[in-house]
Amino acid sequence: MIVKPKVKGFICVNAHPAGCQKLVEDQINYVKDQEIKAPKKALIIGCSSGYGLASRVALGFGANTDTLGVYFDREPTERKTASAGWYNNQHFEKLAKQNGLEARSLNADAFQQDAKDAVIELIKNTIQTVDLVIYSVAAPRRYVASEDKLYSSVLKPVGDGFKGKTINTDKGIIDYIDLEPATQSEIDATVKVMGGEDWYQWMEQLNNAGVLSDQCKTIAYTYIGEELTQPIYGDATIGFAKKDLDSTVQKIDALLKKSNDTLIEKRAYIGVLKALVTQSSAAIPVMPLYISLLYKVMKEKGTHEGCIEQISRMLSTGLYGDTCQLDDVGRLRVDEHELEEAVQLEVKRRWNEITNENLRQLSDFEGYKNDFLKLFGFGFQTINYEAEVETF
């Protein structure tokens, strides 16, 4: 099959297996030259793309960590490719096993009880216990079986409506959005999907099953950002979900300390990462324009990092180091270069000046588009996209 990208709005509905392999191999090649500090056995919940995939790569090939993963991706059929995450995971497992690493995964909905039960059994039958649990689930919906209810998250401001600039990524032009404020039920549903409840349920059940080591730590990732993104992120429905994560980390920390006599100052963490092109961020209004501007400014300053660089620093300097910046509520921060005053001032200046005529001079929209395509295995110069490729 010859596979070309089929982009619909903020998502690509197909994926190129050779390109997905290239994405994984590029990350592996980076971490092989790093000194990653990490434990020897880890569980990554949400392991097949973005920061979750980068975490698994950094652990496996940067620290020789055995990893178990949970992901929820479409498998290939005779007529359709798999989703990118499915290919990413297959390539990672193959390469990890070739390098003598334990690497097993479960393709299941992490929100559901049967997935938690299956992972616990998998741990017991393979690595017995885990030293690190990474929660990196990004999903638009969550079915709660106990309520027989499907919750859907929304990307809306809270309180007041929002009018502002964005990029129409299909047409490559500056556009404007006008969003109505979220209702209380929409806020509650977003928190239910994107907040900390499922993370806590995972940690509680793993702990009760006795599959967490005495030294086990856990981390969930978040984004905070600055002034330009606050109306649609920090002060919006997503922001309410992120605040729920902040309260959940305290509950998990108390749970793990209470259940174990080994004294560790802290066990549960929130890791704050920079704005990057991911399948999640591409769906958030304003973010494509903000990220395009941010990329341009940070690349000019030489401080731009991708997923794998961010996660490598988070592990080595934060979770298993003592040089990572901590904020006033104890979150680990590797977003400091994005938040530099000079960077933010320049991004704001360009935001105010940007037009269709100077879009490509003031921003790195081409870089944004290229990184977006790479999420699905497209856009790599070394791959012949005119050639037939085996898709399953």
Question: Secondary-structure blueprint of this entry?
Answer:
Blueprint: E1 7-8, E2 11-12, H1 17-31, E3 41-45, H2 50-63, E4 66-71, H3 84-98, E5 103-107, H4 113-125, E6 130-135, E7 141-144, E8 149-152, E9 162-168, E10 173-179, H5 184-194, H6 197-208, E11 212-222, H7 237-258, E12 268-272, H8 287-301, H9 307-319, E13 325-326, E14 332-333, H10 341-353, H11 359-362, H12 365-374
Parallel strand pairs: 3-4, 3-6, 4-5, 6-11, 11-12, 12-14
Antiparallel strand pairs: 1-2, 7-8, 9-10, 13-14
Helix pairs in contact: 1-2, 1-3, 2-3, 2-9, 5-7, 6-7, 8-10, 8-12
Overall description:
The chain is an alpha/beta fold. The protein is built from twelve helices and 14 strands. The chain has one domain: Rossmann fold, CATH 3.40.50.720. Helix content is 40%, strand content 17%. The strands form four sheets. It has an eight-stranded mixed sheet with strand order 5-4-3-6-11-12-14-13, sandwiched between helices. The protein has a two-stranded antiparallel ribbon with strand order 1-2. Helix 2 runs parallel beside helix 3.
Tags for this entry?
392 residues, alpha/beta, Rossmann fold, 8-stranded mixed sheet, two-stranded antiparallel ribbon, 14 strands, globular
